[in-house]
């Protein structure tokens, strides 16, 4: 803990450098976790979690929802951003203030000023769910970073190279951890290993991941 200018105790920022342009901010979202989880509940009451299909026709093991002006979707027609939820035909729920604030603060802490995400993908993993190595490349603006927030059960993140065959590093992510990657790391392959069974006091038997992007 450090004493700040106003005499209050504030938790020390734990920055773990991964590679150039990529950093893990340990427990960065911890103090906001309950707000974020409440807002996940609100957003997914409007735009319920669903298992989207890959272009190859397989259901993704992570359940997904979105909020913000743009939402990421996949179906047999491919991957893309769109402003409506395909399930309801309605616009995606607005991005909650708690989400926007946290994403901006995390980007600054990682060295990226002025991040204004217009899309947040919400992933929900239950034991057995995973996400294979992929690049986030459906956005129009690669000058902006990706901010990725972990809540609930721990899961191992894999952070690889700019080519799929480069061996990834494994980074265990816990409740409240935030990963930010941009600049030379923006198009690195990444994913998460299969979620192990567990029970978290705030989320029960799942992990949530919020992934903030500037899509347009
Ligand atoms: C993603 O790349 O969309 C999700 C990564 C994660 O769940 O940490
Ligand atoms: Fe991703």
Automatic annotation (TrEMBL):
Alphabetized GO MF terms: broad specificity oxidative DNA demethylase activity
The cofactors it requires, by name, are: Fe(2+)
Write one Pfam family the protein is assigned to. 2OG-FeII_Oxy_2
Which NCBIfam families does the UniProt record give?
Answer: PRK15401.1 (NF011930)
> What is this protein identified as?
DNA oxidative demethylase AlkB
Q: What class of enzyme is it?
A: oxidoreductase
Instruction: Please list the residue ranges annotated as the Fe2OG dioxygenase domain.
Output: 116-216
Question: What are the protein's UniProt keywords?
Answer: Dioxygenase, Iron, Metal-binding, Oxidoreductase
């Amino acid at each position: 803990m450090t004493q700040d200018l106003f005499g209050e105790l504030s938790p020390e920022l734990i920055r773990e450098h991964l590679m150039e342009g990529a950093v893990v901010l340990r427990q960065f979202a911890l103090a906001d976790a309950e707000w974020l989880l409440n807002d996940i509940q609100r957003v997914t009451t409007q735009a319920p979690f669903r298992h989207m299909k890959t272009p190859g026709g397989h259901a993704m093991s992570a359940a997904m929802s979105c909020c913000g002006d743009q939402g990421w979707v996949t179906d047999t027609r491919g991957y893309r951003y769109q402003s409506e939820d395909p399930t309801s035909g309605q616009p995606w729920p607005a991005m909650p203030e708690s989400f926007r604030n946290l994403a901006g603060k995390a980007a600054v802490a990682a060295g990226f000023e002025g991040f204004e995400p217009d899309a947040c993908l919400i992933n929900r993993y239950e034991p057995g769910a995973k996400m294979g190595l992929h690049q986030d490349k459906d956005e129009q603006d690669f000058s902006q970073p990706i901010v990725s927030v972990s809540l609930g059960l721990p899961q191992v993140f894999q952070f690889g190279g700019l080519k799929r065959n480069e061996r990834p590093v494994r980074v265990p992510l816990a409740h409240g951890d935030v990963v930010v990657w941009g600049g030379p790391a923006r198009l690195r392959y990444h994913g998460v290993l299969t979620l192990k069974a567990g029970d978290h006091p705030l989320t029960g038997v799942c992990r949530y991941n919020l992934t903030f992007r500037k899509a347009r």
